Amino acid sequence: MTPRFERVWQANPEVGAVLRESPTIGVARKRLFDYLNRQEREFLNHNFNIYALELATTLSSVQVMKSIISVRNEEKTGFSALRQLFDAAHGLVPEEKLTPGFKEEFRHLFRAIRGRSKLYPEWQAVPPKRLSGREAAIVRSGKLDRFSEYVEEHIRRYPTGLDPKVMKRRAENRQRIMVTFGAAESDWNDYRWHLRNVMTDAEALGKAVRLTPEEKQAIKLANEHRIPFGVTPYYASLMDFEPRRVNDHSIRAQVIPSMTYVEMMAENKGKGLHSLDFMQEYDTSPIDLVTRRYPRIAILKPYNTCAQICVYCQRNWEIEQPMAPHAMAPADQIDAAVSWFRDHPGLTEVLVTGGDPLVTGNNFIDRLLDKLSRIRRIERIRIGSRVFVTVPQRITKKLADIIARYHEPGKREMCLVTHIQHVYEVTEETMHAVQEFRKRGIAVYNQMVFTRENSRRFEAVALRRLLRLIGVDPYYTFNTKGKEETVDFRVPIARLRQEQKEEARLMPGLVRTDEAVFNVPGMGKNYVRGTQHHSVIMILPDGRRVYEFHPWEKRISLAPTYVDTDVGIWEYLEWLKSRGEDLKDYRSIWYYY
Ligand code: SF4
């Protein structure tokens, strides 16, 4: 149902009256600030008849409201939500001009600033009774049992690649794909065969799984515009044959682009290569093949392609095609980059990534690690690779032995950082690949990108839990970046914060070891869990929030902030509804800022 503006005023009649009775926007701003200050004073000094948790929501909402109506933030964002509200209160904006997203944001905000978020209805009904000792512990334990059942109930909704039924289906998929390629079992177990047979068009992938007309069209358009597309036979075997996207939604979406994505990519490509460099890697590269955003660690990218291409890859502006023949950097460039590391004594850690360095040959990996290990100061070498899910056959005993040779406890740590998105991607092959490293004392970490495809209630929790069981430590959960072509993937920051607080937090500490971050272009990671690192500074007419992110250098040295527009909560909730989700489960999302 599209909310009427009337409901916004009903949420807080006092704000409605202030706006209606103010003759000018300047007066309205002053009176609103007075009202918000009064609210704070009232709740902190006089009105103690409010539950502490409701008070916390009220106080943070008051701050957000002040931030939104401030002149500073109007200038920073070039928009005035206050003007929109003022005009609406004076009947100057037709109802249909106000989007549901905008109305819903303010309806919730207005409710919260008067202490009526309705997040704790049980408090209004029966104030919690104070118990103590064993009696309290038993009651508490009963409550925790119910939480645990709630977690379990949700996790069960997501079948994993280790479920016997799924494994059986995949064995059939594998046979079908092998017949299509005329491949033998020995081919399937050989990573080189997979890398030689990456499917790069709809015709090839269409022989492995059924594609919808839209999927075919998007792949065709991607090919026409030379937008990288590719899927390994192994990864194709993880897709369900029919394109219903019930369980394999994350897997298909990971590699099959949407029309929106392809059209926007094609348009941006026309503007020149660096318009796609959203992360401003070009501006943080002091020498070819190196990216540096932090004092102690820098990135080395010797190889510029992957076994297959993730649709929302932040390096999609650099990668030409999967397994591109000229993806390896010239030897002298690699040597110069390694020398650069040698010449920068502050650096103690290297992240070797790409592209995917593990799709190169053993000899190359060995030589590169040998060169890096000769810089005695380098105490950790991380290798970023997605082969654990794209072609786990690549993790041979030989490769693991090579990497393990450079792992010297007390001197130098070797570790792997992978990118697993969903429990449906986790297979026995992935688990065995991980265990090859764990057996050798080498840790494997995971960076998950929080997209629409893994953002339903407890979907990310299900993954973290399974990762721990196969030997992978959750490391980062990335908020999807503001790249416009990836709009189909993006999830509001409020949802990521909600997930961390209401889902991840319910798991034991060793399962939720990841940090939720927004990778700020040109700056580095911003920890989104703490509101002290960012603030909501505006709500746009379409309901999208504008955030101001603080640099990690805050309180260490002066550095610029970064302003970014999020995706709208209303649209995201509508999408969840279309996926069959019960929106009551997500109702607190509006109060995560
Ligand atoms: S594996 Fe990493 S570098 Fe390669 S396409 Fe995916 S996100 Fe990009």
UniProtKB/TrEMBL annotation:
The keyword Iron-sulfur applies. InterPro entries: Aldolase_TIM, Elp3/MiaA/NifB-like_rSAM, Lys_aminomutase/Glu_NH3_mut, rSAM, rSAM_sf. GO terms for molecular function: 4 iron, 4 sulfur cluster binding; catalytic activity; metal ion binding. Its cofactor is pyridoxal 5'-phosphate. Transmembrane segments: none annotated. It comes from the Bacteria. Coiled coil: none annotated. Residues 292-510 form the Radical SAM core domain. Keywords: 4Fe-4S, Iron, Iron-sulfur, Metal-binding, Pyridoxal phosphate, S-adenosyl-L-methionine. Pfam families: Radical_SAM (PF04055). SMART domains: Elp3. NCBIfam families: KamA family radical SAM protein. PANTHER family: L-LYSINE 2,3-AMINOMUTASE AQ_1632-RELATED, LYSINE 2,3-AMINOMUTASE-RELATED. This is KamA family radical SAM protein. It comes from candidate division WOR-3 bacterium JGI_Cruoil_03_51_56.
